[in-house]
Amino acid sequence: MSDRIDPAMNLEISDDDIYDAMKDVQGYLDVTPADLKELYKFAYRHALERMTRSVRARDIMTRLVFSVNRNTPVREVAEIMAARRISGLPVLDKDGTVAGVISEKDFLSRMGTGGKSHFMAVLAEFLQGKGDLTMVAGLLKAEDMMTSPAVSVMEDLPVGEISRILTEKLINRVPVVGAKGELTGIVSRTDVVRALLLTGGG
Predict the structure, then answer these.
(1) Are residues 79 and 160 in the same domain?
(2) How confident is the model over 40-81, as pLDDT tens digits?
(3) Are 147 and 118 found together in one domain?
(4) H or E element, residue 156
(5) Which residues pair with 103 in a beta bridge?
(6) Contact predicate 130/113, CB 8 Å
(7) What is the 3-state secondary structure (H, E, C) of 153-176?
């Protein structure tokens, strides 16, 4: 974890964090400004690590999730995403479990004739008469467009692990599922950043 301290973070440092930090300092503490700075750095790190372990997916997830099922026409999927101003949503099986996820990137890569993933590239193909987006949209369903299997997390996964998954998978959101795999919420990169900035240790 980086030693850089973000002054915008409202993080409470507990006595235990101080004691743990003191153990991290090598040698005798002479209470110089340099020692205090080093001690604070270690205490801050312990507090941050404790917070990222204690805050779980259920604590930061959005519970009202817009979703579609496998057979939802992609035209309807696009309308929902546009109306709700969201860039992706889960696709559910009949039993409510997450079958996949559809994002703007999925639309672009699957509707371009060459697997293009940039809006202007798909638009250029359309303007050149190389593809009929209207016809394609009328034929496809959510299951034809979604990325599957979906990357999902359990409700009790710590926020630190969620941050790692989002970074490693290069995704902006992840569905949260219950014990039976049912959709219970969604956590976005914004939710993780907000938790790291605004949640104090307790």
Answers:
(1) yes
(2) 777 777 776 776 677 899 999 999 999 999 999 988 998 999
(3) yes
(4) none
(5) 88
(6) yes
(7) EECCCEHHHHHHHHHHHCCCEEEE
